[in-house]
Amino acid sequence: MSASIITANLEIPFPTDREAEIAHGSLSVDKEPKRGGVKKTMTVHNNIMHIHFAAPEARLLRVSINSFFDHLKLVVETLERFGQPR
What we know:
The protein has 86 residues and is α+β, with helices and mostly antiparallel strands. It has helices at 17-28, 58-82, and strands spanning 6-13, 39-45, 48-55.
Protein backbone atom coordinates (compact mmCIF):
# COMPACT_ATOMS: atom_id res chain seq x y z
CA MET A 1 0.00 0.00 0.00
CA SER A 2 1.55 3.32 -1.05
CA ALA A 3 1.26 6.48 0.98
CA SER A 4 -0.83 9.27 -0.47
CA ILE A 5 0.68 12.65 -1.14
CA ILE A 6 -1.16 15.83 -0.21
CA THR A 7 -0.59 18.84 -2.44
CA ALA A 8 -1.34 22.55 -2.46
CA ASN A 9 -0.86 25.15 -5.17
CA LEU A 10 -0.54 28.87 -4.52
CA GLU A 11 -0.48 31.81 -6.91
CA ILE A 12 0.93 35.02 -5.48
CA PRO A 13 0.44 38.15 -7.61
CA PHE A 14 2.92 41.02 -7.40
CA PRO A 15 2.53 44.56 -8.73
CA THR A 16 5.32 44.01 -11.28
CA ASP A 17 7.23 41.21 -13.00
CA ARG A 18 10.44 42.49 -11.38
CA GLU A 19 9.01 42.25 -7.85
CA ALA A 20 7.85 38.69 -8.55
CA GLU A 21 11.37 37.79 -9.70
CA ILE A 22 12.93 39.41 -6.62
CA ALA A 23 10.55 37.52 -4.31
CA HIS A 24 11.25 34.27 -6.16
CA GLY A 25 15.00 34.79 -5.85
CA SER A 26 14.73 35.60 -2.15
CA LEU A 27 12.47 32.66 -1.32
CA SER A 28 14.23 30.08 -3.51
CA VAL A 29 17.20 29.88 -1.16
CA ASP A 30 14.98 28.43 1.61
CA LYS A 31 14.89 24.76 0.64
CA GLU A 32 12.61 22.38 2.53
CA PRO A 33 14.44 20.17 5.03
CA LYS A 34 14.92 16.67 3.57
CA ARG A 35 13.77 14.96 6.76
CA GLY A 36 10.26 16.45 6.50
CA GLY A 37 9.49 14.94 3.13
CA VAL A 38 7.91 18.18 1.83
CA LYS A 39 8.75 19.20 -1.72
CA LYS A 40 8.30 22.81 -2.82
CA THR A 41 8.68 24.07 -6.38
CA MET A 42 8.40 27.70 -7.40
CA THR A 43 8.15 29.38 -10.78
CA VAL A 44 7.37 32.89 -11.96
CA HIS A 45 5.24 33.79 -14.97
CA ASN A 46 4.97 37.52 -15.57
CA ASN A 47 4.01 39.04 -12.20
CA ILE A 48 2.66 35.80 -10.68
CA MET A 49 4.71 33.49 -8.49
CA HIS A 50 3.43 29.90 -8.59
CA ILE A 51 4.26 27.58 -5.70
CA HIS A 52 3.52 23.85 -5.55
CA PHE A 53 3.81 21.96 -2.25
CA ALA A 54 3.67 18.17 -1.89
CA ALA A 55 3.84 16.42 1.49
CA PRO A 56 3.16 12.97 2.92
CA GLU A 57 1.06 14.41 5.78
CA ALA A 58 -1.36 17.33 6.11
CA ARG A 59 0.46 18.54 9.24
CA LEU A 60 3.77 18.78 7.36
CA LEU A 61 2.07 20.59 4.50
CA ARG A 62 0.51 23.10 6.90
CA VAL A 63 3.83 23.78 8.67
CA SER A 64 5.61 24.25 5.34
CA ILE A 65 2.99 26.65 3.98
CA ASN A 66 2.91 28.65 7.24
CA SER A 67 6.69 28.98 7.14
CA PHE A 68 6.54 30.04 3.49
CA PHE A 69 4.00 32.77 4.30
CA ASP A 70 6.19 34.03 7.17
CA HIS A 71 9.10 34.40 4.75
CA LEU A 72 6.87 35.89 2.03
CA LYS A 73 5.58 38.51 4.47
CA LEU A 74 9.15 39.61 5.21
CA VAL A 75 9.98 39.83 1.49
CA VAL A 76 6.83 41.87 0.73
CA GLU A 77 7.47 44.23 3.67
CA THR A 78 11.05 44.74 2.47
CA LEU A 79 9.88 45.51 -1.08
CA GLU A 80 7.33 47.99 0.28
CA ARG A 81 9.86 49.62 2.62
CA PHE A 82 12.53 50.18 -0.01
CA GLY A 83 10.20 51.04 -2.87
CA GLN A 84 9.96 50.01 -6.48
CA PRO A 85 13.08 48.07 -7.56
CA ARG A 86 15.06 49.49 -10.48
